[in-house]
C-alpha cells in the first residue's frame, strides 16, 4: 500500500501575501560625491526616521547613466539607510540583480507618490502639468428628455441638452454644456480643469454654475441682468462672467 | 391584458389616495373591470376612503406571501359590481413586499381586470418604488406649491429610470399630471402657482385640475369616493379626468374664479 508523503510534523512556516508602506529614495543623480553630500546633510537631520523605515532605492530617473550601482547601495547603507530593495525599469534588472537586493518593477505611470522633506514632513510638490488638450475625440452627449431633480448627467466631451434641466438636477461635462431650454439646476462645465469650457442656456434660472471649479450660486446670479434670459457663461481670469446669447 | 396605472407624487398628503379612489371608481362607473391596490403597507387608508374597512379579512401582504389566495383578499365594492379593492396590511411594513411577489400578484390581477390602480405611499423608498415598478401609466398628483412640484419632478425622474419598462428598454411609462387643491382665487392674487407655471416646470401632459373643495373631506369621512358627489366641483373634475385618461379631449374646467351672480350672492350659492 502506497502511503502519501504527508508530513506529520507541525509546519515551521507559512507563506503569505502582504503589503507594506515603504519610503522611496529616488535618485536624481548618479554621482557618488553628490549623493554622499546630501545623505550626510539629511541623515544628520532625520537619522531616526530614515534608519527605521524600510527604504527602496529608485534609479528610474537616472537609468540612462552608467553608474556604480553597487557603490551607491553601499554608500546608502553606510549612512544607516535600511535598503530593502531597488526599483528600476526592466532593462536594468539583470545588471542590478548582482548587488543582492530584490529588484522591483517601475511604478505604473498613473500611480501617485507623496514627497517628504528631511524631517519627514509632507511636501507639496508641483505636479508635472500636462497641457489640458481639448479632447475632440471624446464624444458629445445629446440628451433629449428633461433632466429631472435628483438626476446627474456626465459627459466626457461636450453636453447638449434639448430639454429643461429641473431644479435639483446636476449636469456635468469635461467640455461645454449647451442647454436648449431653461437651466434650473446645477451646471458644471470643464470639470477636469478646462478653463475654456462654457455654459450656454436659453433661460438662466440656475442653482449653481461652475466652470473648472470657479462657481457662482443662484443668490449671486439672480442680481445679474441676465437672470431668466438666454445667457452664455464663461471664465475670464478666474471670474465667471455672463454674456448675452 | 390590464393597464397598470400608478398614482404617485413623492410628496405626502397631496391627494393620492383620494385620487386613486376617485379615478378607480370613475373607470368602473364607465364599465371597466377595475381593482384598486393599496401599496402603503403599515399606513393603509385606501380601504377607509373606499368605505370597505370593515370587510378586510386578508390583505396584499397575505397574498404576496401565499397565506391567502387573491380571491379571498379582494373586496368587492358595495356600489359597483366591477370595482374591487386589495387592501394593504396595517401590521406589517414595506419590507414584506418583494418584487417577485408583487409581480406575481400583478400578473394574476391582469387576467381578471381591465385596469389596476396602484395607490402609492408617499416618498421615494421601497413602497413607492414597488408601486411604480410594474406601471404602464402614471398619474403624478401635485399641489400647486413649490415643495410638491419639486418632489413630483424627482418622482418623474425615478419613473423614467427605475421602472420595469425602463430596465427592459420598452416604451417609457406614460406620465400624466393631476393638479389637485387648485384655488383660482389665490392664483389670481399671485399666491399660488398657476397651471401654466406647474406645466412649465414639469413638462408633462395635464390630465386634470381638481379644485380645492370641501366635498373631499366630507367624502373621505363618509367612505364614499368624491366622484360619486356629482354636484361638487371636485367630483365633476375627477369625472373629466377619467374621461381624459380614457382618451377623450375635454376642456379643463374650474380654472377660473366663479363669478357669483347677484341672485346667488343674495340667496347663497
Characterize the structure shown.
The complex is a heterodimer of chains A (245) and B (269). Chain A has 245 residues and is α/β, with parallel strands linked by helices. Chain A has helices spanning 32-52, 69-78, 93-97, 218-221, and strands spanning 23-26, 55-58, 83-87, 103-104, 115-116, 122-123, 141-143, 152-155, 159-161, 170-173, 177-183, 186-189, 199-204, 208-211, 214-217, 231-236, 239-244. A six-stranded mixed β-sheet of chain A has the order 7-9-11-13-16-17, with no helix packed on it. A five-stranded mixed β-sheet of chain A has the order 8-10-12-14-15. In chain A, strand 14 and strand 15 (214-217) form a beta hairpin. The longest helix of chain A has 21 residues, at 32-52. Residues 130-135 of chain A have low confidence and may be disordered. The model of chain B has no long low-confidence stretch (mean pLDDT 94). Chain B is built from 13 helices and eight strands. Chain B has an eight-stranded mixed β-sheet, with helices on both faces. With 269 residues, chain B is of the alpha/beta class. Chain B has helices at residues 16-29, 46-50, 60-64, 70-73, 99-112, 126-133, 146-161, 164-168, 184-188, 195-202, 214-222, 233-245, 262-267; strands at residues 3-8, 34-38, 75-76, 83-86, 115-119, 137-142, 174-182, 205-211. The longest helix of chain B is centred in the middle third of the chain and has 16 residues, at 146-161. Classes of the chains: A alpha/beta (245), B alpha/beta (269). Chains A and B meet through loops of A and helix 7 of B.
Amino acid at each position: 500500500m502506497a502511503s502519501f508523503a504527508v508530513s506529520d510534523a507541525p509546519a515551521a512556516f507559512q507563506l503569505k501575501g502582504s503589503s507594506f508602506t515603504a519610503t522611496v529614495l529616488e535618485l536624481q543623480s548618479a554621482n557618488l560625491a553628490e549623493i554622499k553630500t546630501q545623505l550626510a546633510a539629511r541623515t544628520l537631520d532625520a537619522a531616526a526616521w530614515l534608519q527605521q523605515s524600510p527604504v527602496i532605492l529608485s534609479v528610474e530617473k537616472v537609468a540612462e547613466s552608467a553608474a556604480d550601482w553597487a557603490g551607491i547601495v553601499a554608500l546608502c547603507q553606510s549612512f544607516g539607510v535600511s535598503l530593502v530593495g531597488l526599483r528600476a525599469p526592466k532593462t536594468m534588472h539583470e545588471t542590478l540583480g548582482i548587488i543582492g537586493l530584490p529588484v522591483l518593477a517601475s511604478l505604473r505611470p498613473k500611480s501617485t507618490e507623496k514627497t517628504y522633506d528631511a524631517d519627514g514632513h509632507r511636501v507639496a510638490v508641483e505636479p508635472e502639468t500636462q497641457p489640458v488638450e481639448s479632447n475632440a475625440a471624446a464624444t458629445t452627449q445629446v440628451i433629449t428628455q428633461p433632466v429631472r431633480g435628483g438626476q446627474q448627467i456626465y459627459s466626457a466631451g461636450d453636453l447638449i441638452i434639448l430639454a429643461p434641466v429641473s431644479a435639483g438636477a446636476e449636469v456635468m461635462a469635461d467640455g461645454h454644456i449647451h442647454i436648449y431650454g431653461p437651466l434650473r439646476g446645477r451646471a458644471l462645465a470643464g470639470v477636469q480643469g478646462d478653463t475654456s469650457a462654457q455654459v450656454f442656456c436659453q433661460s438662466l434660472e440656475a442653482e449653481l454654475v461652475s466652470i473648472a471649479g470657479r462657481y457662482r450660486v443662484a443668490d449671486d446670479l439672480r442680481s445679474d441682468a441676465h437672470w431668466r434670459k438666454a445667457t452664455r457663461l464663461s471664465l475670464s481670469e478666474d471670474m465667471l462672467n455672463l454674456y448675452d446669447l | 391584458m390590464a393597464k397598470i396605472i400608478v398614482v404617485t407624487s413623492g410628496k405626502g398628503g397631496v391627494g393620492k389616495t383620494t385620487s386613486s379612489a376617485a379615478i378607480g371608481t370613475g373607470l368602473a362607473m364607465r364599465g371597466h373591470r377595475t381593482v384598486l391596490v393599496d401599496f402603503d403597507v403599515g399606513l393603509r387608508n385606501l380601504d377607509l376612503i373606499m368605505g370597505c374597512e370593515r370587510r378586510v379579512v386578508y390583505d396584499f401582504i397575505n397574498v404576496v406571501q401565499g397565506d391567502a389566495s387573491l380571491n379571498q383578499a379582494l373586496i368587492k365594492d358595495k356600489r359597483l359590481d366591477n370595482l374591487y379593492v386589495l387592501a394593504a396590511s396595517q401590521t406589517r411594513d414595506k419590507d414584506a413586499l418583494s418584487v417577485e411577489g408583487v409581480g406575481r400578484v400583478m400578473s394574476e390581477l391582469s387576467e381578471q381586470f381591465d385596469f389596476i390602480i396602484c395607490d402609492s405611499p408617499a416618498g421615494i423608498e421601497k413602497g413607492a418604488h414597488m408601486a411604480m415598478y410594474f406601471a404602464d401609466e402614471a398619474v403624478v398628483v401635485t399641489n400647486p406649491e413649490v415643495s410638491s412640484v419639486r418632489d413630483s419632478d424627482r418622482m418623474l425622474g425615478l419613473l423614467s429610470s427605475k421602472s420595469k419598462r425602463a430596465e427592459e428598454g420598452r416604451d417609457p411609462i406614460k406620465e400624466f399630471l393631476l393638479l389637485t387643491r387648485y384655488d383660482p382665487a389665490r392664483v389670481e392674487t399671485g399666491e399660488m402657482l398657476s397651471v401654466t407655471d406647474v406645466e412649465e416646470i414639469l413638462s408633462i401632459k395635464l390630465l386634470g385640475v381638481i379644485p380645492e373643495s370641501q366635498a373631499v373631506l366630507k367624502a373621505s369621512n363618509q367612505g364614499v369616493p368624491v366622484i360619486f358627489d356629482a354636484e361638487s366641483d371636485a367630483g365633476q373634475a375627477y369625472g373629466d379626468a377619467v374621461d381624459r385618461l380614457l382618451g377623450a379631449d375635454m376642456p379643463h374646467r374650474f380654472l377660473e374664479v366663479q363669478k357669483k351672480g347677484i341672485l346667488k350672492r343674495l340667496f347663497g350659492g
